[in-house]
UniProtKB/TrEMBL annotation:
PROSITE patterns: MOCF_BIOSYNTHESIS_2. It comes from Roseovarius bejariae. SMART domains: MoCF_biosynth (SM00852). Residues 1-20 are annotated as: Disordered. Pfam families: MoCF_biosynth (PF00994), MoeA_C (PF03454), MoeA_N (PF03453). GO terms for biological process: Mo-molybdopterin cofactor biosynthetic process. Residues 210-347 form the MoaB/Mog domain. One of its GO terms (cellular component) is cytosol. Its EC number is 2.10.1.1. It is an enzyme of class 2 (transferase). This is Molybdopterin molybdenumtransferase. One of its GO terms (molecular function) is molybdopterin molybdotransferase activity. Catalyzes the insertion of molybdate into adenylated molybdopterin with the concomitant release of AMP. It comes from the Bacteria.
């Protein structure tokens, strides 16, 4: 079905967009107060879906993009049986007992230059790495294991049938699925696609992420600051994360604590982006305009998550565009982005749910943790042990630069002493 109309179907697919998110996609169940981290992640995973359309790109332009469909091999790899070494090829069934002396057939087989003919039984042919096996050859002996004479070779007994050869399709069969939908294409994936003849790839359009900082107190680095004012650290950090994740950054700048100004910025952002990340204004105070606007729109849920640092996370839709209202504190904003926004953005971009890969290593610190909240400590690994930053203060931005990952402590009470196994998640695991 559709055969002969592939070009038209691809063109039509490029205009397709998934359905919008439902207005209640972030709504919490009745009676929920503090939401455990795992429950919050499960709810995000179950309620989000891709919000970007599709396009078809040449393979050379597809690095880092999300595959929109399963990709199948157009031909086998290797396409023909071939040799893995430089040597001499022959039919194993023609070998006798003991050491062998075998006459050579004129000519040779090389990669890209096939031998035109059949190798007679009991004869050998010079063959070079990557060459297709000609008729009459199923085994290759290394040239180092051969004595070359005048028109003949000699070698010891014991070579096994099929030695030093590769079977046709032993890596990939024609028609086999090589990459699944939702795969972010790597350089290795591009090599695999090329090897099996895939030269165009249907991919998801790149997710566009708008980043907004809110607050009267914020100024741009380099500007003159007055008493009570601070430089905006969140926007450069969040913008850097967005680009590191492989998405398109839409920098919407700073917005003062003015509801009308924020409303106007939201309206502009949804014309340019698929998702909005804000920092600050996500709680329920007088100047928390992100929460107030999402409440006005009737699509707001304040997720009070049992996490440290973080807790309040305002989630909602602005005219169908998802909004993640992150905490204003840079440490909490980064942790919430990595733990919650990162996997959510992956789903919205058409990819798979991002499950960060951590591993247990001995602690190089001591800490008594109270029950009730999942905790994330800025950390790095030295001498095989997890070190944590000298202060847990959420205003200590230098700790984000010092760290190379996070130590994740469980919801339950814990007493960590040097040598206690702890879960360490490198920052690279969130990419």
């Amino acid at each position: 079905m559709g055969q002969g109309f592939e070009d038209k179907l691809n063109q039509a697919a490029e205009g397709l967009r998934p359905p919008p998110l439902r207005d209640d996609c972030f709504a919490l169940p009745a009676g929920v107060d503090w939401t455990p981290v795992d429950e919050a992640l499960d709810m995000l995973r179950g309620r989000l879906h891709p919000v970007v359309g599709q396009e078809t790109l040449p393979l050379s332009k597809a690095l880092g993009r999300v595959s929109a469909n399963d990709l199948k091999a157009l031909r086998a790899n290797p396409p023909q049986a071939n040799t893995a070494v430089d040597g001499y090829g022959f039919a194993h069934a023609s070998l006798g007992d003991g050491d062998q002396v075998m006459p050579l057939t004129k000519g040779r087989a090389a990669a890209g230059i096939a031998f035109d003919g059949t190798v007679p039984e009991g004869h050998a042919l010079r063959i070079l790495t990557g060459a297709a096996l000609p008729e009459g050859v199923d085994t290759v002996i290394l040239q180092e294991d051969v004595t070359l004479g005048d028109g003949a070779i000699a070698f010891r007994a014991g070579i096994k049938p099929g030695a030093n050869t590769r079977k046709a399709g032993e890596d990939v069969q024609a028609g086999e699925v090589i990459l699944r939908e939702g795969r972010v294409l790597t350089p290795a994936d591009m090599a695999l696609c090329a090897a099996v003849g895939v030269h165009e790839v249907p991919v998801r359009k790149r997710l566009k992420v708008a980043v907004i900082s809110t607050g009267d107190e914020l100024r741009e680095p380099g500007q003159v600051v007055e008493k009570g004012q601070i430089f905006d650290a969140n926007r450069p950090m969040l913008g850097g994360l967005v680009e590191r994740f492989g998405y398109d950054l839409v920098d919407m700048g700073r917005v003062p604590d003015d509801r009308d100004a924020l409303r106007q910025t939201f309206d502009q952002a949804i014309e340019k982006a698929d998702i909005i990340l804000t920092s600050g204004g996500a709680s329920a105070g007088d100047e928390d305009h992100v929460s107030a606007l999402l409440n006005e729109a009737g699509a707001m849920a304040e997720w009070r998550i049992a996490v440290k640092p973080g807790r309040p996370l305002a989630l909602g839709l602005w005219n169908g565009t998802p909004v993640f209202g992150l905490p204003g504190n840079p440490v909490a904003a980064m942790v919430c982005t990595l733990v919650f926004a990162r996997p959510a953005m992956s789903l919205l971009a058409g990819g798979k749910w991002q499950e960060p890969q951590g591993f247990n290593i001995p602690a190089a610190f001591e800490k008594k943790k109270k029950p009730g909240r999942r905790e994330y400590l800025r950390a790095r690994v030295r001498d095989g042990k997890a070190e944590v930053f000298k202060s847990e203060g959420s205003g200590r931005i230098s700790g984000l630069s010092w760290a190379e990952g996070l130590v994740e402590l469980p919801d339950q009470a814990a007493h960590i002493t040097p040598g206690t196994p702890v879960r360490y998640i490198p920052f690279s695991s969130f990419e």
